[in-house]
Amino acid sequence: MDKDIRVRFAPSPTGNLHIGGARTALFNWLFARHNGGSLILRIDDTDLARSTEESTRGIFSALKWLGLDWDEGPGVGGSFGPYYQSQRLELYAKIANELVDQGKAYYCYCTPEELAERRKKAMAEGKAPRYDNRCRDLTEQERIEKENEGRRPTIRLRVPDTGETVVQDYFRGDVSFANEVLDDFIIVKSNGMPAYNFACVVDDAKMRITHIMRAEEHLSNTPRQIMIYQALGYPLPVFAHVSMILAPDHSKLSKRHGATSVEEFQDLGYLPGALINYLALLGWSPEGEEEIFSLQELVRQFKLERVGKTAAIYDIKKLTWMNGQYLNAEDLDQIIELVSPYFRQKNLLPESLNPEDMDYLKQVVGAVRTRVKTLAEIADGAEYFYTDDFTYDEKGTRKHFRKENAAKYLELARQRLTNLETFNLETTEKAYRELSEELGIKAGQIIHPTRLALSGRTMGPGLFDIMIILGKEKTLKRLERAVQYINNLD
Questions:
Q1: Which of 177, 172, 184 is nearest to 105 (CA)?
Q2: 335-376 pLDDT, tens per residue?
Q3: Which candidate in 255, 309, 318, 362 is catalytic?
Q4: What's the pTM value of the predicted model, to 2 decimals?
Q5: Is 255 a catalytic site residue?
Q6: Do the Cβ atoms of 116 and 167 come closer than 8 Å?
Q7: Dihedral pair phi/psi, residue 154, rounded to 5°
Q8: What sign for the dihedral angle of Cα 253, 74, 90, 200?
């Protein structure tokens, strides 16, 4: 166990927590917990135009729903706060000015329009559109003249014109970047806000982050960040860039591929344990063939050396299957607690339940959850247990109600059930088996139309489970209703 390990998750609060971000948070959390280290949550909110309080709250909520806590950060505190970048602006300004004083950075007075024009000209001449360093060695008098023109400077870091910067990545080994293509990049914008790379380095160093595990897309930022570390004299952390999550067609994952945020999966009725389990397997390989893990088991097994280099492929079908496994394995009382809001959204439950209502709910959920994959599907699949006013599936009607003798068979079944003194799984099934045998038909010729009559659907829990949950009186009434409906069909 290495208690000196310090990792961070640093989301920008500009939208919902995407599954890519959630996986980054999870991998950092697992690495910290496996090694007895610390996870720091930092909110990188220097993009004031796009950052919102709502998104920040959403990130906190999503992480808590997933069961991922943090050791330092908002709501927890710590020795290296504040943990919002927007509250650390004075620190960034102080350090940037120190770099200028040391000659490692300089003020640049070029306007965005001038820079755009030069890039356009360079490209037209077949040259790389890099900054031409024209403000790198301005005299004091030249600086004063430009400021008198009303120009607001940025601050650029001096970058070597030759050579290369090597990123030592945990997963990919050494990755080299030519310094000439990096140019003297901006570390402080003209409005005084720090550039992303600069703020990240300052914060990661000041918060004593030892390992930076993040998405592969940040690899291209890393040489610039290394240059900032070196300019400031800070020790480098271990960089580990996790491969991308791609869509099934190997394109970039987007909304057109379905739900992509933690909030969406929560709304759709996925369980946090299932989503965590699935995300862990997107890029990490456990020992052995097992695929279902508790959070504690993931902590025990998680090692960086088992994180792969190739892109992970997002598979909603695999996640949905996994969620079904969790639905069936989870304690019924816990499922009741999680699924109740979905029932109330459909006005199937009152705000408070008496013992009789709760017992009925447990029977319904216990039967329905074995045939569905999400909490929302449990609520959808349970509607007919709470209302007699449902329609019959059109395809089922054509297949089962329009068959010859359908009404006759249902009426005979109703009569058999009426005569039962004991109404339970054994007696109801026995009555159906005996009736089908007497009629010389397959049991399905009575069972399938009965299911449609009782639920309006062609699929669901076992037919006799449905009967027992509904009770004898409701079962008989629904059979009678279906007989009348069939007799009135054109």
A1: 184
A2: 999 999 999 999 999 888 899 999 999 999 999 999 999 999
A3: 255
A4: 0.91
A5: yes
A6: no
A7: -95, 175
A8: negative
